[in-house]
Amino acid sequence: MDEIKVFSPASVSNICCGFDVLGFAMQGLGDIITLSKTHKKGVFIKNISGFNIPLEIKNNTATVALNAFLEKLNYTHGFEISIEKNIMPGSGLGSSAACAAGSVYAANMILGEPFTLHQLVEFAMEGELISSESAPADNIASALFGGIVLVDNFKKYHVINLPAPQDVFAVIHHPLISRSTYESRNELPKNVLLKKASYQLTNIASFVHSLHTNNIDLMKRSLNDHLVQNQREFFFSYFKKIKSISYNMGSICCSISGSGPSIFSLVCDYKLAEKIKLDIDKEFVKMDIKFNSYLSTFGSQGVRVI
Ligand code: HSE
């Protein structure tokens, strides 16, 4: 095989109660990456279409990740990459992660899978860290593993796939503004109260338990955040209104996706999810904010060959 094309999905990180450690892969939105082998050693960009991303090899999350992959493998040839960039950078939907994860996944497949998915997380993270130096692996793990993931950012990014409930759906709204993860993370407080940390431990443990037992009531109770959401809500004028519509209509969660500006709702019924999506769409129109919206399974498939 000399050429491969992959679809690398957008993702929602944090899932409200798991700052930096939880995430899920989205259905429908993703980048398309084509990788071909070259005789020449190194990584080369052939074409980038769609949203603008850096063209310099050292500043592009995909090529930085690919270089990390090649370095470890001691490969004597190289790769040429084309990216159809469909996920807007700064959307809070794992845009930089999709490129980094997709490119190393493609390289691994084209070379007969010399590395495990866990090893690919490490290479992809080298790319992700270009976009935000304190970035966790929540979006990378979501894009690579798919489903719902729990990632340990301290122990070489160990990833655990959690059970994804079949009858929960995610409604995602992306107001077409861009907010850098780097800036957003810089604005967060460096310390949290022990009491808040303790609340959050209960929430995340309960959430994981709710996925294993398919306990929707517990899931709803655990989907709360005491660490970052209060600080971040302030930047998104639309959030309070959308949150109130979403909860009033029966969602089990409405929160910020990653560091925003995108927001997501979790809903336990497909028809209701469609209705909630439509009503939130209408509210964005009323607020005169341009947006894209999506209805996804809660934990879709990860990066794949197409
Ligand atoms: N979890 C990160 C944050 C964003 O909330 O800042 C994505 O890695």
Brief summary:
By secondary structure, the protein is α+β, with helices and mostly antiparallel strands. The protein has helices at residues 61-73, 95-110, 117-131, 138-145, 181-186, 194-213, 216-222, 229-233, 239-248, 270-286; strands at residues 3-13, 22-38, 42-50, 78-85, 148-152, 158-162, 169-175, 253-256, 263-267, 291-297, 304-305.
Number of strands: 11
| Count of spatially separate domains | 2
CATH architecture of the largest domain: 2-Layer Sandwich
- H and E string: EEEHEHHHEEEHHHHHEEHEE
Task: Give the integer mean of the pLDDT values.
Answer: 95
The CATH class of the largest domain is identified as: Alpha Beta
Describe the structure.
The chain has 306 residues and is of the alpha+beta class. The chain has two domains: 3-162, Ribosomal Protein S5, domain 2; 168-297, Alpha-Beta Plaits. The chain is 38% helix and 26% strand. The chain has ten helices and eleven strands. The protein has helices at residues 61-73, 95-110, 117-131, 138-145, 181-186, 194-213, 216-222, 229-233, 239-248, 270-286, and strands spanning 3-13, 22-38, 42-50, 78-85, 148-152, 158-162, 169-175, 253-256, 263-267, 291-297, 304-305. The strands form two sheets. Strands 1, 2, 3, 4, 5, 6 and 11 form a seven-stranded mixed β-sheet that branches. Strands 8-9-7-10 form a four-stranded antiparallel β-sheet. Strand 3, helix 1 and strand 4 form a beta-alpha-beta unit. Helix 1 (61-73) packs parallel to helix 2 (95-110). The two termini are 14 Å apart. The chain binds L-homoserine (HSE). L-homoserine (HSE) is lined by residues 13-14, 19-20, 135-136, 138-139, 181, 184-185, 258-259.
